[in-house]
Specification:
The protein is an alpha/beta fold and 195 residues long. The chain has five helices and seven strands; from the N terminus they run βββαββααβαβα. A seven-stranded parallel sheet has the order 5-4-3-2-1-6-7.
């Protein structure tokens, strides 16, 4: 099987660490306003944007012509096509989507990714994203269960980490595979920051 690396880009801390020239960069929502991407997944209905930030997002999306998946095609935007939600639900046998990141991970798996790296997706405690963490981790599990290498980058990400960083029932810290990224730290380092 030919290797296919997908770099998933959120708008949180660590997004600037995404390497150029190493696979495709797929962004969520309006992240293309912050950084260049090859594809956008925006499941929000943007047909009649009421907020200025959404109008800017749609204007720039049209101007840049970035291939985009959304709930539906949007008239006047040839680069926007309908997200294949029915096909993906059929493929995986589940409709568990709690965030835009879930849709982008599912699409990467569906389109044959062999290596997925995630940057700028933190799901930090006490944020609006904490309730979305479980579904993101579910889709990471689906990817890993299919033999796809999945790496979460960023020292502030709490994805695949227990609340206290300990293995349940043990008094040992979880271990994480580090790579050469400057923002990769162990859970021990992260816990020390908050002591």
């Amino acid at each position: 099987m030919k290797e296919k690396r997908i770099n998933i880009l959120g708008s949180g801390p660590g997004r600037l660490e995404v390497p150029s020239g190493k696979g495709e960069i797929w962004g969520v929502n309006n992240v293309h306003l912050l950084q260049d991407v090859d594809l956008i997944v925006d499941i929000h209905n943007r047909v009649n944007p009421k907020e200025e930030k959404d109008r800017v997002h749609m204007k720039e999306l049209g101007k840049k012509g970035i291939p985009t998946y959304s709930q539906d095609k949007i008239e006047g935007f040839d680069n926007v096509k309908k997200y294949p939600v029915d096909e993906i639900i059929k493929e995986f046998g589940v409709d568990y989507f709690g965030s835009g990141i879930d849709y982008i991970i599912a699409l990467a798996i569906y389109e044959g990714a062999t290596d997925i790296h995630m940057y700028g997706v933190c799901m930090m405690d006490k944020s609006e994203y904490t309730h979305q963490k479980a579904s993101v981790e579910f889709w990471i599990g689906v990817a890993m269960g299919r033999g796809i290498n999945f790496t979460v980058h960023g020292e502030y990400s709490v994805i695949l980490k227990t609340k206290d960083g300990l293995l349940y029932g043990y008094k040992t810290f979880q271990q994480y595979v580090k790579d050469e990224s400057p923002d990769e730290v162990s859970m021990m380092d992260l816990v020390r920051k908050y002591e």
